[in-house]
Amino acid sequence: MTVISIANASGSAGKTTLGVTLAALIAQSGITCDLVDFDPQGNATHWAGVDVTAGQPTIADVLEAEIGTVNLTAARHTTAIPGLRVVPVNRDRMEGIELRLSRLTGAEQLLRIALESDDDPAQVTIIDCPGSLGLLTVSALVASEKMLTVTAPGMKELGGLPLIAKTLDKVRKVYRPGLTLAGVVPSIIPPRSAGRHYTDALEQLQGQWTDKVAPAVRRAVRVPESYAAREPLPLYDPTAPVTDDYRQVLTWLTAQGALA
Ligand SMILES: Nc1ncnc2c1ncn2[C@@H]1O[C@H](COP(=O)(O)OP(=O)(O)OP(=O)(O)O)[C@@H](O)[C@H]1O
Ligand SMILES: [Mg+2]
Predict the structure, then answer these.
(1) Pocket of ligand 1, beta carbon within 6 A
(2) Is 0.85 surpassed by the pTM of this model?
(3) Which of the listed residues 223, 225, 243, 249 should we mutate to test ligand 1's pocket, taking the one with most ligand atoms within 8 A of CB?
(4) Taking the CA atoms of the chain, what radius of gyration do you get in angstroms?
(5) Which fold has domain 2-255?
(6) Fewer CB within 10 Å: N-end or C-end of the chain?
(7) Which ligand is closest to the CA of 227, given by its number?
(8) Contact, 235 vs 7, CB < 8 A?
């Protein structure tokens, strides 16, 4: 089982889009994949078409219940894509969770413990983190072998990458020596005609992060459409050029050994 966190220091970078799309593509390739929604906004849960009804356990229950009493199996939902399951968020249950968790001993270890004691793990687990480097993101990294990050092609966005790299470094030193950066995925790339700033930023990214830079994902209206339809891109429009961009990212990650 491989656990990959998708994390970034800022919001609206394209994390959830990458997480949901990669998870769907991985499942379609015949590798079972769990998508753990770790963002109180619940965007991955919504996108995957999962509705949580009252009383059903969610990721908050897995974290906050007495250790071992609510396991991931109780919280999992199947989806329209065979092989893809979701551990969902319920927004109401997640409200204030970081503050509550911060009062628990070993809070940053709770997700790792839940994953390690999971009796029905998928081959790959993807964790969609919130757009900040708080306790949730740290505990996702503690539970992961790999971290993937995402950036839009702007100088401001690139400026946030050292922050997430520093967090990764800290988690590696304190909790998880094997944690590695799987890659940086340039996302929401406008067409060349949109201006030199974007091409300059992409070049700068490649100069700084060299072989860690994944193939780029173009900007396409298919993405928000697919979210609105509550169908992951590979289901909503399997032949769209942007879906192919994500396929290239998956091929690149596989070649790097990130799924192994
Ligand atoms: N390739 C793309 N083309 C066009 N729009 C995109 C693309 N990728 C993401 N978006 C849009 O950009 C917005 C942010 O994307 P997303 O939700 O994936 O980011 P995020 O990093 O998960 O944000 P948050 O930190 O709020 O969770 C969304 O409205 C999404 O539809
Ligand atoms: Mg998100």
Answers:
(1) 8, 11-17, 39, 41, 43, 131, 187-188, 217, 219-220, 223-224, 227, 242
(2) yes
(3) 223
(4) 17
(5) Rossmann fold (3.40.50)
(6) C
(7) 1
(8) no
Looking at residue 68, what is its pLDDT?
Answer: 81
The residue type at 241: P
Centre of ligand 2 to C-alpha 17, Å, is: 7
Contact between residue 214 and residue 186 where contact means Cβ atoms under 8 Å apart: yes
What are the tens digits of pLDDT across the range 111-164? 999 999 999 999 999 999 999 999 999 999 999 999 999 999 999 999 999 999
Ligand nearest to the CA of 18: 1
- Parse the chain into domains and list their residue ranges: 2-255
Could you tell me the two tokens for 9? Answer: 């220091």
Separation of alpha carbons 148 and 133, rounded Å? 14
Ligand with smallest separation from the Cα of 187:
1
Per-residue pLDDT averaged across 65-92, rounded?
A: 94
Locate all alpha helices (DSSP H) within the chain, ordered by sequence: 15-28, 43-47, 59-64, 72-75, 91-94, 97-102, 110-116, 135-142, 155-158, 161-174, 196-209, 222-229, 233-236, 241-255
- Cβ–Cβ under 8 Å, residues 136 and 98: yes
Return the number of other C-beta atoms located less than 10 Å from residue 190's C-beta.
Answer: 14
What count of residues does the chain have?
260
Which residue of 136, 157, 188 sits with most ligand 1 atoms within 8 Å of its CB, as the best mutation to test the pocket? 188
- Per residue in 22-63, pLDDT (tens digit) is 999 999 999 999 999 999 999 999 999 999 998 899 999 999
- Which protein residues have a CB closer than 5 Å to ligand 2 (ion)? 15-16, 43
- What are the tokens at 127? 């964790």
pLDDT value of position 67: 82
